[in-house]
Design brief:
There is one protein chain. By secondary structure, the chain is of the alpha/beta class. Helices cover 41% and strands 18% of the residues. The strands form ten sheets. A five-stranded mixed β-barrel has the order 8-11-9-10-13. The chain has a four-stranded mixed β-sheet with strand order 15-17-19-20, with helices on one face. A three-stranded antiparallel β-sheet has the order 22-23-24, with no helix packed on it.
Amino acid sequence: MGEQSKTIIQPAILCGGHGSRLWPLSTERRPKPFLPLVSRRSMLAETAARVAGETGEIAFAPVFAVGSARHETLLKAELPGAGLVLEPLARNSGPAIAAACLAAPDSLLLLLPADHHITDIDAFRAAIARGAPSAEDGALVTFGIKPDRPATGYGYICADFDTTGAPAAVERFVEKPDADTAAEYLASGRYAWNAGIFLARADALINAFETHAPEMIAAARAAMAETGLIRPGEVRRLDPAEFARAPSNSIDYAVMEKAEKVAVVPVDMGWSDIGDHGALYALKAATGHTHEGAVFTRDAERCFIRSEGPMVAVRGVSDLAVVATTRGVLVTPLADAGSTKPLAEDAAVRGFAGALSDQATQKVRDWLFETCLPLWAETAWDDKNGGFVESLGLSGAPEPDLPRRGRVAPRQIYAFAQAMMLGWDDPAAEKLVLDGLDYLDTRARAPGGGWASLLSPTGDALDPALALYDHAFIVLAGAWAYRATGETGARRLAEEALEIIAERMADPVHGGWWDTDARTGPRRSNPHMHLLEAALSLHRATGETSALDLALDIVELFETRFFDPRTGALTEYFEPDWTRAPGPAGRLSEPGHCYEWAVLLGFFEEAQGRDLISWRRRLIDFADRVGRDARGFAYDAVDLSANVLKPTRRLWPQLEMFRARLFHPETAPPGEAERVLETVWSEYLAAGPEGGWMDAFDAEGRPAASHVPASMLYHILTAFSPLCWR
């Protein structure tokens, strides 16, 4: 057959999903498609390799991928030179495929999950060739895997298959069956596993969307600024607001089960979706490599054991999966490995908070959702003047007549947005978030642009200076409000605050940012810490790689300027050229900030992969050794020579110590996080108004606060949210 007659097929790889059943190998930062599970190449790279070049009657065009904007760097590393369509948020396979169609509207489109393993590439390509004529004729072609066992973890396709492997009309798609039903399917010979691979003309799929899922294709079309064939190396970013309007649904439910002209090509190609550790063991067992990494065994039979971190020793067991990474350890029976998804998702979400007792966790949840948040929902907003009050009195009554710091409103917006994300369903939460955003967008602005550092109760700018600290919190508030509500105005405010920081506070000579737009005076590490937190939150909310680049700049400042390698301490004050401030200010360190930096550096490591564990542990070690009193409470300030500068102890350093204990349990004996939580509870939360707290104690342990600062609700949510994810 001549070169001219080959059928050109456009491969599009769908790189969604996290592979939660493969936790702790698969994580949100580096999910299953980016892992080298079977060979030295990632599953995504393996997928791209099997649709490269030409074979027989077909030739493959250059591949492009649809994936998460959060994984742009990973996608470019695994698919160098490929076109990318980046999703701002996950909306299931239906909207992703709709976007793929619009990126290659005149093509014969082959849609491939990024995380499948295929051993017989020739059979795979032959099946594509058999399905191509039907697809060119307008059919939506899927591929059915010949079942070799009554599997209950796959969907099935029912059709009258013949012995030639020709496309057959699909009678119906079937959900994952129970064991008895799966056995009946296997015996009948009329059912195949649904591989989730599709071949169709893009225009035929688009027509099917317009008939059966019009909102989905309309949202994808509105989200994609440019249509037409995506070019190699081109990156198309879908508009977040428009794409969010797409119903989150799979292609099977949205289109395939409803379309009239659907065909299935049966194929036996050594296929596996490696859906769990049991499936991974089955593949590894065929090669004899079921133990990987620092693994030692005695009398362990039929086990899959893999370590990417600690040494693992296993003795006297059989039929287990034992998987260890620096993130966690999973032990599960191989026969039931597919049932670990709820456990893995819980572990991935709650993380080290799972070390606390159920009683302690429930106590926090009850107090937060039933007492604390209702108090602030009732009192935080000033109905007369608008905006959030600066504080409550010790009776729990609001104090609306006090001036308001610029940080209070964005911190409150963050707190209520986080509460929404945690599942607190009081309608007041969303109203407070939206009202707060409107307040930031109108009355809280400084006369010359940006946001004022201090406001009167009626919204007059008492200090029109623009502070890096306050603007970092506006970025944080916008990112979390965008995640919680989908309001594009929240993202706009976050991005506007970043522009102001870049234009009016950045220091192109010495690096970093000035504390204010005046660009004079001493410089502090603390505002940079909150800018790091904000950048990480914006990256999580939008997937923007520029936010992660910003975070990297701050981390490098920490490594080169803020950290004192001789003591392991964080330093706070600097000269304009980033040399340490002279005198006591240059030697001051706040234990609470040491703990807080340790946690945020961990979040950055999770997002970007940079190894920061030594920095984190040394910060915690300094704060533990030098920064605590005899009862274990964190001081407000010490110096690099272990002198106590401020023996008082506010609430927030204790909450940051608690957070550090959660995320770094190896830095203290077991049970230390719960001990810190109990002291916070008995000393601080019990001493304030119901739902509030005593914000400070003096050196003798006597209450030393005259009010309950509204800004502390931010610290309450950051500390307690890991206990409340469900």
